[in-house]
Design brief:
alpha/beta, Rossmann fold, Helicase, Ruva Protein, domain 3, 2 domains, two-stranded antiparallel sheet, 11 strands
Protein backbone atom coordinates (compact mmCIF):
# COMPACT_ATOMS: atom_id res chain seq x y z
CA UNK A 1 0.00 0.00 0.00
CA UNK A 2 1.15 3.52 -0.83
CA UNK A 3 1.40 5.98 2.06
CA UNK A 4 -0.28 8.95 0.35
CA UNK A 5 0.44 11.38 3.18
CA UNK A 6 4.16 10.58 3.17
CA UNK A 7 4.26 10.69 -0.66
CA UNK A 8 2.46 14.05 -0.70
CA UNK A 9 4.95 15.58 1.72
CA UNK A 10 7.94 14.22 -0.22
CA UNK A 11 6.61 15.40 -3.60
CA UNK A 12 5.77 18.83 -2.13
CA UNK A 13 9.39 19.16 -1.00
CA UNK A 14 11.01 17.66 -4.11
CA UNK A 15 8.86 19.60 -6.61
CA UNK A 16 9.72 23.04 -5.21
CA UNK A 17 12.11 23.64 -8.14
CA UNK A 18 9.04 23.89 -10.43
CA UNK A 19 8.19 27.26 -8.84
CA UNK A 20 11.81 28.32 -9.36
CA UNK A 21 11.60 27.49 -13.10
CA UNK A 22 8.18 29.18 -13.46
CA UNK A 23 9.41 32.28 -11.62
CA UNK A 24 12.50 32.58 -13.81
CA UNK A 25 10.45 32.00 -16.99
CA UNK A 26 7.94 34.69 -15.98
CA UNK A 27 10.77 37.25 -16.05
CA UNK A 28 10.93 36.97 -19.85
CA UNK A 29 7.62 35.30 -20.81
CA UNK A 30 4.59 37.46 -20.05
CA UNK A 31 1.46 35.35 -19.50
CA UNK A 32 1.36 32.09 -21.55
CA UNK A 33 1.13 30.06 -18.33
CA UNK A 34 -0.46 27.16 -20.21
CA UNK A 35 2.42 26.99 -22.69
CA UNK A 36 5.02 27.01 -19.87
CA UNK A 37 3.14 24.25 -18.01
CA UNK A 38 2.96 22.21 -21.22
CA UNK A 39 6.72 22.53 -21.68
CA UNK A 40 7.25 21.35 -18.11
CA UNK A 41 4.90 18.38 -18.65
CA UNK A 42 6.88 17.38 -21.75
CA UNK A 43 10.15 17.79 -19.87
CA UNK A 44 9.01 15.74 -16.87
CA UNK A 45 7.57 12.89 -18.94
CA UNK A 46 10.02 12.62 -21.84
CA UNK A 47 7.27 13.69 -24.25
CA UNK A 48 7.41 15.95 -27.30
CA UNK A 49 5.14 18.91 -27.96
CA UNK A 50 3.46 20.31 -31.06
CA UNK A 51 2.64 24.00 -30.66
CA UNK A 52 0.15 25.72 -32.91
CA UNK A 53 -0.12 29.47 -32.90
CA UNK A 54 0.42 32.59 -34.98
CA UNK A 55 3.95 34.08 -35.14
CA UNK A 56 5.24 36.24 -32.28
CA UNK A 57 3.72 34.39 -29.32
CA UNK A 58 7.10 33.67 -27.62
CA UNK A 59 7.34 30.00 -28.68
CA UNK A 60 11.06 30.26 -29.48
CA UNK A 61 11.76 32.48 -26.47
CA UNK A 62 10.06 29.97 -24.15
CA UNK A 63 12.18 26.99 -25.15
CA UNK A 64 15.46 28.97 -25.33
CA UNK A 65 14.76 30.35 -21.84
CA UNK A 66 14.01 26.86 -20.50
CA UNK A 67 17.25 25.49 -21.96
CA UNK A 68 19.23 28.30 -20.28
CA UNK A 69 17.58 27.70 -16.89
CA UNK A 70 18.51 24.01 -17.08
CA UNK A 71 21.94 24.59 -18.68
CA UNK A 72 21.00 22.36 -21.60
CA UNK A 73 22.09 22.36 -25.24
CA UNK A 74 19.56 24.09 -27.52
CA UNK A 75 19.21 24.08 -31.30
CA UNK A 76 16.69 25.68 -33.64
CA UNK A 77 15.87 24.26 -37.06
CA UNK A 78 13.88 26.40 -39.48
CA UNK A 79 11.93 23.94 -41.63
CA UNK A 80 11.82 24.98 -45.30
CA UNK A 81 10.76 23.14 -48.50
CA UNK A 82 14.40 22.66 -49.57
CA UNK A 83 15.55 21.13 -46.25
CA UNK A 84 17.09 17.64 -46.49
CA UNK A 85 17.23 14.89 -43.81
CA UNK A 86 21.03 15.30 -43.71
CA UNK A 87 20.56 18.99 -42.73
CA UNK A 88 18.71 17.71 -39.68
CA UNK A 89 20.49 14.58 -38.49
CA UNK A 90 23.95 15.06 -40.03
CA UNK A 91 25.96 13.23 -42.67
CA UNK A 92 29.29 11.60 -43.55
CA UNK A 93 31.82 13.99 -45.10
CA UNK A 94 35.16 13.11 -46.68
CA UNK A 95 38.25 14.56 -45.04
CA UNK A 96 41.17 15.13 -47.45
CA UNK A 97 43.48 15.52 -44.47
CA UNK A 98 42.82 12.05 -43.00
CA UNK A 99 41.62 10.51 -46.29
CA UNK A 100 38.58 9.00 -44.63
CA UNK A 101 34.91 9.75 -44.01
CA UNK A 102 34.05 11.51 -40.75
CA UNK A 103 30.65 12.05 -39.15
CA UNK A 104 29.28 15.58 -39.03
CA UNK A 105 26.41 15.61 -36.53
CA UNK A 106 23.33 17.71 -37.28
CA UNK A 107 21.39 20.15 -35.08
CA UNK A 108 19.10 17.37 -33.76
CA UNK A 109 21.96 16.42 -31.39
CA UNK A 110 20.79 18.70 -28.58
CA UNK A 111 18.68 18.50 -25.41
CA UNK A 112 16.05 20.96 -26.69
CA UNK A 113 15.24 21.04 -30.39
CA UNK A 114 12.92 23.71 -31.78
CA UNK A 115 11.49 22.48 -35.08
CA UNK A 116 10.12 25.75 -36.40
CA UNK A 117 7.18 25.41 -38.82
CA UNK A 118 7.55 21.64 -39.15
CA UNK A 119 4.80 21.50 -41.79
CA UNK A 120 6.92 23.55 -44.24
CA UNK A 121 9.21 20.58 -45.04
CA UNK A 122 8.59 17.46 -47.14
CA UNK A 123 7.68 14.08 -45.61
CA UNK A 124 11.28 12.76 -45.75
CA UNK A 125 12.52 15.49 -43.40
CA UNK A 126 9.52 15.19 -41.09
CA UNK A 127 10.07 11.40 -40.89
CA UNK A 128 13.76 11.86 -40.02
CA UNK A 129 12.84 14.05 -37.04
CA UNK A 130 9.95 11.85 -35.92
CA UNK A 131 12.20 8.77 -36.03
CA UNK A 132 14.70 10.55 -33.77
CA UNK A 133 11.84 11.45 -31.41
CA UNK A 134 10.62 7.85 -31.22
CA UNK A 135 13.89 5.92 -31.15
CA UNK A 136 16.01 8.50 -29.28
CA UNK A 137 18.87 7.60 -31.61
CA UNK A 138 20.24 8.57 -35.03
CA UNK A 139 21.89 6.40 -37.67
CA UNK A 140 24.47 8.12 -39.91
CA UNK A 141 26.16 5.77 -42.37
CA UNK A 142 26.89 2.56 -40.48
CA UNK A 143 27.05 4.18 -37.05
CA UNK A 144 24.20 4.66 -34.59
CA UNK A 145 24.37 7.49 -32.07
CA UNK A 146 22.29 7.79 -28.89
CA UNK A 147 20.70 11.19 -28.30
CA UNK A 148 21.45 12.89 -24.98
CA UNK A 149 18.84 12.91 -22.24
CA UNK A 150 16.75 14.92 -21.70
CA UNK A 151 15.71 15.17 -25.37
CA UNK A 152 12.69 17.36 -26.02
CA UNK A 153 11.34 18.36 -29.43
CA UNK A 154 9.12 21.41 -29.61
CA UNK A 155 7.61 21.59 -33.09
CA UNK A 156 5.61 24.60 -34.18
CA UNK A 157 3.13 25.10 -36.98
CA UNK A 158 1.39 28.20 -38.19
CA UNK A 159 -2.41 27.79 -38.50
CA UNK A 160 -2.98 30.77 -40.82
CA UNK A 161 -0.88 29.92 -43.90
CA UNK A 162 -1.38 26.48 -45.43
CA UNK A 163 -0.17 27.21 -49.00
CA UNK A 164 2.93 25.21 -49.86
CA UNK A 165 2.89 23.20 -46.62
CA UNK A 166 3.11 19.46 -46.01
CA UNK A 167 0.60 18.62 -43.25
CA UNK A 168 1.81 15.95 -40.81
CA UNK A 169 0.03 12.60 -41.32
CA UNK A 170 -2.18 11.48 -38.42
CA UNK A 171 0.13 8.54 -37.60
CA UNK A 172 3.08 10.92 -37.23
CA UNK A 173 1.20 13.59 -35.27
CA UNK A 174 0.29 10.80 -32.81
CA UNK A 175 3.95 10.68 -31.73
CA UNK A 176 3.62 14.10 -30.12
CA UNK A 177 2.52 13.78 -26.53
CA UNK A 178 0.70 17.13 -26.54
CA UNK A 179 -0.70 19.44 -29.17
CA UNK A 180 -0.98 22.86 -27.55
CA UNK A 181 -2.96 25.73 -29.07
CA UNK A 182 -1.53 29.13 -28.14
CA UNK A 183 -3.71 32.21 -28.18
CA UNK A 184 -2.97 35.94 -28.16
CA UNK A 185 -2.01 37.54 -24.83
CA UNK A 186 -4.51 39.57 -22.81
CA UNK A 187 -4.61 43.36 -23.17
CA UNK A 188 -2.63 44.12 -19.99
CA UNK A 189 -0.11 41.37 -20.85
CA UNK A 190 0.44 42.88 -24.30
CA UNK A 191 1.18 46.26 -22.70
CA UNK A 192 3.78 44.63 -20.44
CA UNK A 193 5.33 42.81 -23.45
CA UNK A 194 5.74 46.13 -25.28
CA UNK A 195 7.24 47.80 -22.18
CA UNK A 196 9.67 44.90 -21.67
CA UNK A 197 10.84 44.84 -25.29
CA UNK A 198 11.49 48.57 -25.62
CA UNK A 199 13.30 48.83 -22.26
CA UNK A 200 17.03 49.56 -22.17
CA UNK A 201 17.85 45.99 -21.16
CA UNK A 202 15.92 42.78 -21.71
CA UNK A 203 15.89 40.51 -18.61
CA UNK A 204 18.60 37.83 -18.62
CA UNK A 205 17.89 34.21 -17.70
CA UNK A 206 19.89 32.61 -14.91
CA UNK A 207 21.02 28.98 -14.92
CA UNK A 208 19.42 27.37 -11.88
CA UNK A 209 19.36 23.61 -12.58
CA UNK A 210 21.19 20.88 -14.45
CA UNK A 211 19.95 18.15 -16.79
CA UNK A 212 20.68 15.69 -13.95
CA UNK A 213 18.00 17.45 -11.82
CA UNK A 214 15.44 16.91 -14.60
CA UNK A 215 16.27 13.22 -14.99
CA UNK A 216 15.85 12.82 -11.22
CA UNK A 217 12.50 14.65 -11.35
CA UNK A 218 11.30 12.23 -14.05
CA UNK A 219 11.84 9.34 -11.64
CA UNK A 220 9.81 11.21 -9.00
CA UNK A 221 6.94 11.80 -11.45
CA UNK A 222 6.73 8.02 -12.02
CA UNK A 223 6.17 7.62 -8.25
CA UNK A 224 3.02 9.82 -8.29
CA UNK A 225 0.09 7.64 -7.20
CA UNK A 226 -2.51 6.83 -9.87
CA UNK A 227 -5.53 5.06 -8.43
CA UNK A 228 -7.24 2.22 -10.31
CA UNK A 229 -10.44 4.31 -10.51
CA UNK A 230 -8.50 7.11 -12.25
CA UNK A 231 -7.01 4.52 -14.63
CA UNK A 232 -10.55 3.36 -15.45
CA UNK A 233 -11.62 7.00 -15.95
CA UNK A 234 -8.78 7.48 -18.48
CA UNK A 235 -9.76 4.27 -20.31
CA UNK A 236 -13.41 5.40 -20.44
CA UNK A 237 -12.43 8.78 -21.95
CA UNK A 238 -10.33 7.07 -24.65
CA UNK A 239 -13.00 4.45 -25.39
CA UNK A 240 -15.71 7.12 -25.58
CA UNK A 241 -13.79 8.64 -28.51
CA UNK A 242 -13.81 5.24 -30.27
CA UNK A 243 -17.30 3.97 -29.41
CA UNK A 244 -19.34 7.08 -28.49
CA UNK A 245 -22.64 5.16 -28.75
CA UNK A 246 -21.62 2.99 -25.75
CA UNK A 247 -21.38 6.14 -23.62
CA UNK A 248 -24.73 7.61 -24.69
CA UNK A 249 -22.97 9.94 -27.14
CA UNK A 250 -24.86 8.86 -30.26
CA UNK A 251 -24.67 12.40 -31.69
CA UNK A 252 -20.86 11.93 -32.13
CA UNK A 253 -21.01 8.57 -33.94
CA UNK A 254 -21.06 10.12 -37.44
CA UNK A 255 -18.73 12.98 -36.47
CA UNK A 256 -15.71 10.81 -35.54
CA UNK A 257 -13.85 9.02 -38.35
CA UNK A 258 -11.39 7.40 -35.91
CA UNK A 259 -10.92 7.52 -32.15
CA UNK A 260 -7.86 8.08 -29.96
CA UNK A 261 -5.00 5.57 -30.18
CA UNK A 262 -3.55 3.56 -27.23
CA UNK A 263 -0.87 6.28 -26.99
CA UNK A 264 -3.65 8.63 -25.86
CA UNK A 265 -4.31 6.61 -22.70
CA UNK A 266 -0.60 6.24 -21.89
CA UNK A 267 0.08 9.95 -22.43
CA UNK A 268 -3.07 10.99 -20.55
CA UNK A 269 -1.86 9.06 -17.49
CA UNK A 270 1.72 10.41 -17.78
CA UNK A 271 0.61 14.02 -18.37
CA UNK A 272 -1.84 13.82 -15.42
CA UNK A 273 1.01 12.59 -13.18
CA UNK A 274 3.25 15.46 -14.35
CA UNK A 275 0.42 17.96 -13.83
CA UNK A 276 -0.07 16.68 -10.26
CA UNK A 277 3.70 17.04 -9.71
CA UNK A 278 3.57 20.67 -10.96
CA UNK A 279 0.75 21.24 -8.44
CA UNK A 280 3.04 19.71 -5.72
CA UNK A 281 0.77 16.70 -5.11
CA UNK A 282 1.67 13.03 -4.73
CA UNK A 283 -1.54 11.62 -6.23
CA UNK A 284 -3.52 12.18 -9.43
CA UNK A 285 -7.03 13.67 -9.11
CA UNK A 286 -9.73 13.56 -11.82
CA UNK A 287 -9.22 17.32 -12.40
CA UNK A 288 -5.59 16.63 -13.36
CA UNK A 289 -6.81 14.30 -16.12
CA UNK A 290 -9.36 16.87 -17.26
CA UNK A 291 -6.73 19.66 -17.25
CA UNK A 292 -4.46 17.85 -19.74
CA UNK A 293 -7.12 15.96 -21.72
CA UNK A 294 -7.59 18.42 -24.60
CA UNK A 295 -3.85 18.82 -25.23
CA UNK A 296 -3.33 15.04 -25.20
CA UNK A 297 -6.34 14.12 -27.36
CA UNK A 298 -7.09 16.99 -29.77
CA UNK A 299 -4.70 15.63 -32.43
CA UNK A 300 -5.72 12.01 -31.91
CA UNK A 301 -9.40 12.20 -32.89
CA UNK A 302 -10.21 12.11 -36.60
CA UNK A 303 -13.14 14.21 -37.76
CA UNK A 304 -15.54 13.12 -40.49
CA UNK A 305 -16.63 15.34 -43.39
CA UNK A 306 -19.92 15.75 -41.56
CA UNK A 307 -18.14 17.23 -38.51
CA UNK A 308 -16.16 19.63 -40.71
CA UNK A 309 -19.35 20.64 -42.54
CA UNK A 310 -21.03 21.41 -39.22
CA UNK A 311 -17.90 23.25 -38.02
CA UNK A 312 -17.42 20.88 -35.06
CA UNK A 313 -13.85 20.57 -33.76
CA UNK A 314 -12.15 17.74 -31.89
CA UNK A 315 -12.16 20.03 -28.83
CA UNK A 316 -15.98 20.19 -28.95
CA UNK A 317 -16.07 16.38 -28.98
CA UNK A 318 -13.58 16.11 -26.08
CA UNK A 319 -15.67 18.59 -24.06
CA UNK A 320 -18.78 16.48 -24.72
CA UNK A 321 -16.94 13.30 -23.68
CA UNK A 322 -15.68 14.89 -20.44
CA UNK A 323 -19.19 16.11 -19.63
CA UNK A 324 -20.68 12.65 -20.20
CA UNK A 325 -18.10 10.16 -18.84
CA UNK A 326 -18.67 9.51 -15.13
CA UNK A 327 -16.04 11.10 -12.86
CA UNK A 328 -14.73 8.77 -10.10
Amino acid sequence: MVDIKELNERIKLESSFIDTISGEMSRVIVGQKHMVNSLLIGLLTNGHILLEGVPGLAKTLAITSLSKIINAKFSRIQFTPDLLPADLIGTMIYSHKTEEFITKKGPVFANFVLADEINRSPAKVQSALLEAMQEKQITIGENTYKLEEPFLVLATQNPIEQEGTYPLPEAQVDRFMLKVIIDYPKKEEEQLIIRQNIAKEFPKINTLLSTHDILRARDLVKEIYLDEKIEQYIVDIVFASRYPEKYDLNEYKNLISFGASPRAGINLALAAKAYAFIQHRGAVFPEDVRAVCKDVMRHRIGLSYEAEAENISSEDIITGILNRVEVP
